């Protein structure tokens, strides 16, 4: 009778999807005896996936682990093995009690996935055999440990390659943390100090030396930032942890060049420019800042305040300054572009608004003003500070060009005042010249032997010469010299200044002014001056 769902002949279910037939049950029993599989689900029995012809023993190439490269920052070519342990708690307690008197075992490292032939023996014939096996394993570990396990994984073996976004972020972090005016000089000192650590001139030093020296020199960077930067300059040909310090310092200087490029060169040129300005004696020339340098767009960027003011004067020379620049309109347009009211805009947005308001400023000048006075982040600028700076500078230019303003009178003096200053300076020089001539003439006359006060003038010179040999700066104490030294000095100065003091008189003065073998020079000069 055909199978019907609603009128079954007996209670036995004939559906082979629900209850397999005897041949299928026999195959299932044979398969279960060969392979210890779990309970078969309904899906497997329905679609007969359990009984299809398929490979049950895969080749070795499918079971071997995949190779991991060194860039994975792992010290193993494959994952370390899972050590086989005995799960019997009684045996574990006995082994722990027996090994209390021994040293703790070191962790076992290996680079080979253990198979049946490489697995350690779990059952031993005696405890002595077990301890001997453990000692052999410890000796093998001590011999292989330096080659297999590096204990300092602070830096990778191979250099880390960053994406463009990661490079930008890292340079921003370095620029933010080291943005100061003295960084260039400190980088030079850092390079000189690291040379002392590199005795063989390999170009590589350990990262701990770099960390300690950067901290001592005040180059305060976050530990993660410095570590990330050093990861770029390691080498697989060098021991692990050694960094190419030349490339590292060059990279940090390149990151800082966005703040003040050519900073060190400009500091060397600045004293020369100041000397050239001091050499110009004209007040009118000194009022105008000199432009000894070339202002080309191709030159490296250097946000110098004096250069910005020179460019402002050149751009606004033929521009009407009587209210033509509408700062209210400029502020309104900038606030309109700043939709989020964050107070910051990028360079292109600021330039578009400046040209929309028709302010005749060069693109390079706008960029220099933004970098010098309005920079907030890498590519964003405070537009309110930009408007404020323009207002201050243009107000100064107006005041200087307005002859009725006190600023104009300060920087550009009148012709009468200029003549008065010149005449006063000439009279002062003439007065000093007369005084010097009088002093020289008077000294010459008094030095002559025929002059009544000539001898005392020469004696004062002798006294001054004697006081130059005083070593003690305490004036309250007496000035004493050894007797032989005092006699030698008095004889020499007596001969030089032609004082004609008798030798016997000088000897009597020394005897009267002697103390413990020394001569009091103050009393000796008083006696000889009489």
In terms of per-residue confidence, which ranges show pLDDT below 50 for 5 or more consecutive residues? 60-72, 98-103, 109-119, 145-150, 260-272, 278-301
The proportion of strand residues reads under 5%
Query: Helicity level, as a percent range?
Result: 40-55%
Quantity of strands, as a count: 7
Largest sheet: 3 strands, antiparallel
State the strand order across the main sheet: 5-7-6
From the 3D structure, determine the CATH topology of the domain at 289-411: Recoverin, domain 1
CATH architecture descriptor of the domain at 289-411: Orthogonal Bundle
Report the CATH C-level class of the domain at 289-411.
Mainly Alpha
Structural class: mainly alpha
Average pLDDT, rounded to a whole number, is 70
> Whole-number radius of gyration?
48 Å
The best one-word shape is flat
Helix count, DSSP H or I runs of 4 or more residues: 23
Task: Give the distance, in angstroms, between the N- and C-terminal Cα atoms.
Answer: 164 Å
Order of helices and strands: HHHHHHHEHHEHHHHHEHHEHHHHEHHEEH
Question: How do you describe this structure in short?
Answer:
This protein is mainly α and 530 residues long. The protein is 53% helix and 3% strand.
Topology, element by element:
Layout: H1 22-34, H2 42-47, H3 60-63, H4 89-98, H5 127-148, H6 164-177, H7 183-197, E1 204-206, H8 207-216, H9 223-230, E2 242-244, H10 245-256, H11 263-278, H12 283-287, H13 305-315, H14 327-337, E3 344-345, H15 347-356, H16 363-373, E4 381-382, H17 383-401, H18 406-411, H19 415-447, H20 454-467, E5 480-482, H21 483-496, H22 503-512, E6 514-515, E7 518-520, H23 521-529
Antiparallel strand pairs: 1-2, 3-4, 5-7, 6-7
Domain DUF5580: 454-528
Organism: Rotaria socialis
Region (Disordered): 80-113, 128-153, 266-300
């Amino acid at each position: 009778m055909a199978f019907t769902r609603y009128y079954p002949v007996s209670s036995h279910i004939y559906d082979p999807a629900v209850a397999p037939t005897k041949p299928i049950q026999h195959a299932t029993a044979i398969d279960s005896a060969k392979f210890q599989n779990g309970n078969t689900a309904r899906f497997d029995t329905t679609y007969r996936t359990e009984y299809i012809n398929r490979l049950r023993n895969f080749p070795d190439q499918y079971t071997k682990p995949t190779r991991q490269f060194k860039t994975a920052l792992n010290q193993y070519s494959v994952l370390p093995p899972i050590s086989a342990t005995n799960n019997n708690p009684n045996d574990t307690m006995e082994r722990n009690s027996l090994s209390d008197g021994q040293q703790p075992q070191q962790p076992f490292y290996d680079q080979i996935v253990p198979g049946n032939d490489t697995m350690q023996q779990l059952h031993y014939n005696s405890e002595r055999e077990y301890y001997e096996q453990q000692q052999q394993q410890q000796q093998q570990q001590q011999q292989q440990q330096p080659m297999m396990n590096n204990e300092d994984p602070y830096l990778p073996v191979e250099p880390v390659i960053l994406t463009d976004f990661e490079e930008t972020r890292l340079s921003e972090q370095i620029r933010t943390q080291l943005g100061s005016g003295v960084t260039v000089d400190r980088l030079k000192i850092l390079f000189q100090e690291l040379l002392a650590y590199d005795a063989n001139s390999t170009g590589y030093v350990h990262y701990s030396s770099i960390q300690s020296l950067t901290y001592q020199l005040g180059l305060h960077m976050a530990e993660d930032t410095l570590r990330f930067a050093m990861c770029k300059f390691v080498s697989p040909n060098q021991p692990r942890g050694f960094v190419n310090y030349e490339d590292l310092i060059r990279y940090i200087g390149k990151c800082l060049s966005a703040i003040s490029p050519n900073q060190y060169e400009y500091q060397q040129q600045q004293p020369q420019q100041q000397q050239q300005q001091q050499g110009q004696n004209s007040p009118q020339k000194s009022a105008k800042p000199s432009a000894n340098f070339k202002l080309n767009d191709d030159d490296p960027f250097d946000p110098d305040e004096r250069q910005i003011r020179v460019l402002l004067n050149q751009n606004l020379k033929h521009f009407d300054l009587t209210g033509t620049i509408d700062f209210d309109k400029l502020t309104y347009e900038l606030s309109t572009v700043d939709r989020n009211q964050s107070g910051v805009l990028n360079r292109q947005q600021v330039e578009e608004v400046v040209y929309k308001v028709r302010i005749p400023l060069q693109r390079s000048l706008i960029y220099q003003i933004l970098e010098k006075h309005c920079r907030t982040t890498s590519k964003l600028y405070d537009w309110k500070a930009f408007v404020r700076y323009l207002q201050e500078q243009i107000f100064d230019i107006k005041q200087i060009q307005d002859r009725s303003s006190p600023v104009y009178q300060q920087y550009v003096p009148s012709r009468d005042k200029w003549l008065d200053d010149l005449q006063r300076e000439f009279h002062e020089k003439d007065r000093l010249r007369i005084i010097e001539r009088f002093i020289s003439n008077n000294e010459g006359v008094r030095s002559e032997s025929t002059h009544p006060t000539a001898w005392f003038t020469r004696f004062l010179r002798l006294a001054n010469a004697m006081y130059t040999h005083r070593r003690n700066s305490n004036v309250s104490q007496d000035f004493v010299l050894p007797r032989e030294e005092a006699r030698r000095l008095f004889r020499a100065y007596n001969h030089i200044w032609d004082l004609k003091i008798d030798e016997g008189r000088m000897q009597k003065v020394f005897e009267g002014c002697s103390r413990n073998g020394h001569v009091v020079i103050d009393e000796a000069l008083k006696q000889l001056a009489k």
